[in-house]
Amino acid sequence: MNKPVLSEARKRNRVTEFIEVDPILSNQYDGKKYYIRTYGCQMNVHDSEEMAGILENLGFLPTDSEETADIVILNTCAVRENAHDKVFGFLGRCKHIKEKKNKDLIICLCGCMAQETSVVEEIEKHHKYINLVFGTHNIHELPNYLLNLHEGLNVEVKSSEDNVYEVGENYKRDSKISAWVNIMYGCDKFCTYCIVPYTRGKERSRKSEDIIKEVKKLKELGYKEVTLLGQNVNAYGRDREEEISFAELLTKVAEIGIDRVRFVTSHPWNFTDEMIDVIAKYDNIMPYIHLPLQSGSDRILKLMGRRYTQEEYLNLFDKMKERIPGVAITTDIIVGFPNETDEDFEETLKVVEHCKYDGAFTFIYSPREGTPAAKMEDNIDLKTKEDRLHKLNEIVNKYSNMNNQKYLDKTVPVLITGVSEKDNDKLCGYTDTFKLVNVEGGKRLIGEIVDVKITDAKSFSLDGKVE
Ligand code: 5AD
Ligand code: SF4
């Protein structure tokens, strides 16, 4: 048993090593079916693609439901409490299937929740029907765990493993059009509310040469878009003296000539002018930036450990708007951080009124065990927090709708990514500014960048026709 320890997860002084991982092939699970359920961020989505690759190398085939699976993997998120609730709800369903229909069902839990000491303790006490718990640092070990699975609960979580595991093209990617590319792992920012620096470990950049090799390969395979992934991409390279900066990496990736380059997520702190200039210079770097605000109040920003003031954020925001033509900017905002006053909240609204964001993900603060904010006294009741969220959402939606209305009757390039979820007779895709568009058109357009005339604009999507 290897259990996660918070004090170990907090440490940041180890050396990063680069380790090449070769695929492990076996026919032990030939013909068996797997189902992976993913919660949380794009990093998790991409980790699930790695796991799918691993499982197929062991003989598993995909299936689309836990009901028909021989193995279920829950890739979990720990960022907010409601993510926990959803996971335990789904585990209940898996338990039922195992008891009533398929006693051999292998149930695995991995991802950020697996890195939490309290979660593993709860599983040991109350969820012994789970077969395997493994963490974010040892996904590459999954084949070995499955080939040597013991009876009962197996717990294999490393508190930190601070290495970069290079898995090459051992992914089973969900899309043949748009691909995720990790550029770095972990986070060293330690915002006081956030669990990620503990569950994902310290900042570790992949080698730029490996990233470039991967993007070149994706272009050869016909991919139209890559999204560079990191918890905090503008810190790329800062953990290794010999490595290039994020602006230089973006330049090199853009020069490979893939049609569309995106990146998530950027921290407002340390977003350099050079980065802004590179985004503005290359037509294939999409004019879209996700720039989390979290709060507009200087007092709260300080308590959150965000390293910028309202004024600094707004200066950066205005500079981006000025220098990157047509850039769309979205954000994340937390309401109800401990002791957030009405005045603090008003400061957040002030920033939203100024920025008129293209979109925003808004959250009620959720204490995460082990983080500094969880120890702060909080005298704000839930009702007040909910009212604030509601008010914020109204304003956020007003501006996203307003921004979308500007597209009406315009013709814009859209990368068609698949069939629309809402209407199976339609296609869907994204503008360069990352607006979702439901498009009338034939399926042969999937994977193409086409000119679309926008015929209707709502708060969260656009409708259009192929020109
Ligand atoms: N409570 C509420 N929201 C949080 N986020 C991160 N941690 C918390 C928390 N403890 C939000 C932040 C972050 C997004 C991914 O999730 O806004 O940017
Ligand atoms: Fe969490 Fe802050 Fe790191 Fe983002 S930058 S992952 S909010 S600690």
Give me the secondary-structure topology:
Elements: H1 6-10, E1 18-20, E2 33-38, H2 42-57, E3 61-62, E4 71-76, H3 81-100, E5 106-111, H4 117-126, E6 132-134, H5 142-147, E7 154-156, E8 164-166, E9 178-182, E10 184-185, H6 196-199, E11 204-205, H7 208-220, E12 225-229, H8 246-255, E13 260-264, H9 273-281, E14 288-290, H10 298-304, H11 310-323, E15 328-335, H12 342-355, E16 359-364, H13 382-405, E17 411-419, E18 427-431, E19 436-440, E20 449-457, E21 462-466
Parallel strand pairs: 1-8, 2-3, 2-4, 4-5, 5-6, 6-7, 9-12, 12-13, 14-15, 15-16, 19-21
Antiparallel strand pairs: 10-11, 17-18, 17-20, 18-19, 20-21
Bound molecules: 5'-deoxyadenosine and iron/sulfur cluster (SF4).
Iron/sulfur cluster binds at residues 187, 189-191, 194, 196-197, 231-232, 267.
Describe this structure in words.
By secondary structure, this protein is α/β, with parallel strands linked by helices. It folds into three domains: about 5-165, Rossmann fold, CATH 3.40.50.12160; about 170-405, pyruvate-formate lyase- activating enzyme, CATH 3.80.30.20; about 410-465, OB fold (Dihydrolipoamide Acetyltransferase, E2P), CATH 2.40.50.140. The chain has helices at about 5-10, 40-55, 80-100, 115-125, 140-145, 195-200, 210-220, 245-255, 275-280, 300-305, 310-325, 340-355, 380-405, and strands at about 20, 35-40, 60, 70-75, 105-110, 130-135, 155, 165, 180, 185, 205, 225-230, 260-265, 290, 330-335, 360-365, 410-420, 425-430, 435-440, 450-455, 460-465. A six-stranded parallel β-sheet has the order 3-2-4-5-6-7, sandwiched between helices. A five-stranded mixed barrel has the order 17-18-19-21-20. It is globular, with a radius of gyration of 22 Å. Iron/sulfur cluster binds near residues 194, 197, 231 and 267.
